[in-house]
Amino acid sequence: MRLWVTGYRSYELGVFSANEPKLKIIKAALRAEIIAHFEQHLAWVISGGQLGTEQWGLEVATELKKDYPELQTAMMLSFADFGKNWNETNQTALEVLRSQVDFSAAVSDKPYHSPKQLRNYQEFMLTHTDGALVLYDETAPGKTHYTVEAIQRYQAQHDYELSLLDFDDLQDMANNYQEDQENGFQAE
């Protein structure tokens, strides 16, 4: 199985630093979902390079390769100069992560010039994956809403799995994390 991991951008969740406690919870939830999918024959985690869920998902999958060496990772970018307008720190993080995945390419070999490139990227991701894990909650649609809608339209005509991680799931993970801390367990 090839799984598309996507969802909210970091700013949509108010995560502006790698040290924020909520990022530990988000990554723990992504980790649990990726492991669950791996146990159902997941072979590839495929994501984009957006700051937020996409990069976190690839970071988690890359870390999981220590325990699941057969797991493969790919970063697919929507256009050739993706991230070029980001600050230096974010550009460096993108390039470091890109160097750690098993495969990376841009769907369009041209620099950004049209919203059609983004639609083509979405279509590419749908047709080159078997399902999606999306960090998304209907109470806070954001940009991810358009991705979820596209997946649901695609599902109407194709066998395609959609797994949503919502705010309730994150709250459950946070509660479990806090309980583990109170009981003296060390989180990863």
Topology:
Blueprint: E1 2-7, H1 21-38, E2 44-47, H2 53-64, E3 72-77, H3 88-100, E4 103-106, H4 115-127, E5 131-135, H5 144-155, E6 161-165, H6 167-182
Helix pairs in contact: 1-2, 1-6
Organism: Loigolactobacillus coryniformis subsp. coryniformis KCTC 3167 = DSM 20001
Family: Belongs to the UPF0398 family.
Protein name: UPF0398 protein FD22_GL000249
Number of domains: 1
Q: Per CATH, which architecture?
A: 3-Layer(aba) Sandwich
Distance between the termini: 26 Å
CATH topology label? Rossmann fold
* Rg over alpha carbons: 16 Å
Q: What's the helical proportion of residues?
A: 40-55%
Q: Decide which structural class fits the backbone.
A: alpha/beta
Main β sheet profile: 6 strands, parallel
Strand order, main sheet: write it out.
4-3-2-1-5-6
Query: What is the ordering of alpha helices and beta strands?
Result: EHEHEHEHEHEH
Short description:
The chain is 45% helix and 16% strand.
Walk me through this protein's architecture:
The structure is a single chain. This protein has 188 residues and is an alpha/beta fold. The protein has a single domain, classed as Rossmann fold (3-Layer(aba) Sandwich). The chain has 6 helices and 6 strands. It has helices at 21-38, 53-64, 88-100, 115-127, 144-155, 167-182; strands spanning 2-7, 44-47, 72-77, 103-106, 131-135, 161-165. Strands 4-3-2-1-5-6 form a 6-stranded parallel β-sheet, sandwiched between helices. The longest helix is centred in the first third of the chain and has 18 residues, at 21-38. The model has no long low-confidence stretch (mean pLDDT 95).
